Amino acid sequence: MSTPPANDPKRPRRIGSLKLLWPFVRPNRTLAFGWLLFLALSSASALVLPVAVRHMFDHGFRHSNAQAINGSFLALFVVALVMAFATAARFYCISLLGERTLAALRSKLYAHVIRLDVGFYERNRVGELTSRLGTDTEVVQALVGSGISVALRSAVMLIGATVAMVWTSPRLAGLTALVIPAVVLPILIFGRRVQKLSRASQDRLADAAAIANETLNAASAVKAYAREGIESDRYGDAIARALSTARKRIGVRSILTAVVITLFFGAITLVLWVGARDVLAGTLEEGVLAQFIFYAVYSGGSMMGLSDVWGDVLRAAGAMERIGELFAEDATIADPPNPVALPTPVHGALRFEHIEFRYPTRLDAPALHDFNLDIRPGETVALVGPSGAGKSTVFALLLRFYDPQRGRITFDGVDLRAMTLPELRGAIALVPQETVLFSGSAADNIRFGRQDASDEEVHDAARAAEANDFIQLLQDGYNAELGERGVRLSGGQRQRVAIARAILRDAPLLLLDEATSSLDAQSEAAIQQALERLEKGRTTLVIAHRLATVQRADRIVVMDGGRIIAQGTHASLLAEGGLYAELARLQFVA
Ligand SMILES: Nc1ncnc2c1ncn2[C@@H]1O[C@H](COP(=O)(O)OP(=O)(O)OP(=O)(O)O)[C@@H](O)[C@H]1O
Fold this sequence. Notes:
Residues 36-315 form the ABC transmembrane type-1 domain. The chain is an alpha/beta fold. Helices cover 63% and strands 10% of the residues. Among the domains are: 98-328, ABC transporter transmembrane region fold; 437-506, P-loop containing nucleotide triphosphate hydrolases (Rossmann fold). The strands form three sheets. A six-stranded mixed beta sheet has the order 6-9-10-3-11-12, with helices on both faces. Strands 2-1-4-5 form a four-stranded antiparallel beta sheet, with helices on one face. It is elongated and about 120 Å long. Mean pLDDT is 84; it is low at 1-12. The site of adenosine-5'-triphosphate has 14 residues, from helix 10.
C-alpha cells in the first residue's frame, strides 16, 4: 500500500502529530506542574462552592439561624478567594507555557528550514514557509496557551461535577447519564469534518501568502508591466478560496455548537424538571436540588468548553502536521560523519574531475557534462561563454549548493563532500551578480562577510573596495540603514559593498560573478582596482562579462553547453578564432 504524499489534502489528519510538540513543552515542566497544581486547586474550590450553598439552605434558611448564615457566607467568600487566586495563577502558568512553546517552536523551525538545501527553496515558495512560521505556529500556541488549559480544566470539572452529581442525587445523576451519548456523538461526527476543513483553510491561506510575498517583493516589475489589476485579482481569488474554505469550517462548527447546546440544555432541563417535581412531592430537599443545579451547570459549561476546544485541538493537529512535514525535510547536502580538514594554511588548489551534473528540477538536460578543470593556487581563471553555458553552475557546485551526480571536486586535494560545509564555505568569498542588502546599517551589511570584524576592519575593507567615499556621504555614514526601507544604493555601490564583504572575509578562494549592468567608466575603473587588490594572493574564479576582467586573468576558460571548449590567454584564444573570438568581438556581453 502506498502512502499518499504529505501535501495530499485527502490524507487523514492524525491527532498523533501533536506529540511532536512534547520536546518544546518538556523544558517548561515546572510551569506545567504549577499549572496542574493550580488547576486542581481552582477546580476543587469551584466544586466546594455548591456545598457552601447547600449548607446555607440546610442550616441557615431552614432553621433561621443567623449565626450559621454568617459562617456560611464567610466560608463562601474564603472559597471564592482561593478560587480567584488559583485561577489567576493557573492562567499565568499556562499562558507563559504557551508563549515559551511558541518561541521555541518558531526558533527551531527557522533554524531547521534555513539549513535546508538550495534545492528545497526551489521546490517551495518562500511565502508559504513564512506563513507556516507565522500562522501555523500561532494555531499551535492557541492550543498550548489556552486550548489545553480549557480542555483539561473542563475535563477535570466534568469528572468532578459528575462525581458530585452522583453523590448529591444518584437518581438525577442516573437520569443525566442516560442522555449524555446524545451530546457526545455529534461532537465526534462533526469534529472530524472541522479538522479536515481547518487544514484545508490553512493551506489556502499559505497559498495566498505565497502570492503576496512573490509579487510584493517584485513590486516594480509588477508596475512596469502594469499588472497591478491582474495580480490583485490573482491574490483576491486566492483569498476568496481561503475564505470559502473558512466559511465551510465556521458553518460546520456553528452547527456543532448549536446542536451541542440544544441537546445539553434539553437534557439538563429534563433532569431538573424531574428534580423540581421530586421537591414538590417532598422526596427531595431544596438544598440538594440547588447543589445539583450548580453541578449540572458546571458540567454543562465543561461540556461546552470541551466541544469548543476539540475544534482547536483538531486545528492545531492540522497545523502541527504541516510543521512536522517541514521538520521531516532533511538537508541532502550535509556534513560527513568523519570530516577531513583543509590543510593549514589553505593553498587554494581546485580540481574538477569528470563532473556530470543535472539540476534536480531539470534532470533531462545536463548543466555540466564531463567537465574537467585544474586550477593552481593563486591563479585567476576567467570563465566565459554564452548565456546558459554553465558558468554559474560551476560556482553552485563549488559552494556545494548541489552535489554532482558523477565525478568529484577537490579543494587542496580534499573532496568537497569530505569536509564540513562551514569549513568549505568559510574558505570561500563570493561576490554575486546581484548583491543582497539586509536590514541593518552599512557597517552591518559589510560585516556580513565576517561577523566578528572590528569597526576598524570594516572601514579598511570599505576603503579597499572604494566604498568608503559614498558611505561617508550617506546621512548617518556607516550607521546609515541599508536594505529594506533603508537608503537605496546604485548597482555599482551595491557591488562595492559586496566587494567590501569579500575583502573582510579574507578567504583563500574568491568567486566573482560580474554584474552585466554597465557601470559608468569611473566606477568600473574603481571596482577593477578594488578587485585586482582582492585577487592578489588567492585563487580566483570569475564569471567574466568584461574585456578588462579577462585581460587581468591568468587563464581564460571558454564554456559552451556545459563543457570546456577552449582555454588559454586572451591573445592565444583570439588567434584561435572560434567562439572566444566571436564573444570578444561582442565585448563579452553574455
Ligand atoms: N536552479 C536551476 N534549476 C534548473 N536548471 C537550472 C538552474 N540554474 C541553471 N539551470 C540551467 O542550467 C544550465 C546552465 O545554467 P548556468 O546558470 O550555469 O549558465 P550561465 O553560463 O551561468 O548563464 P548566464 O551567463 O546567463 O548566467 C542552463 O540550461 C540553465 O537553464
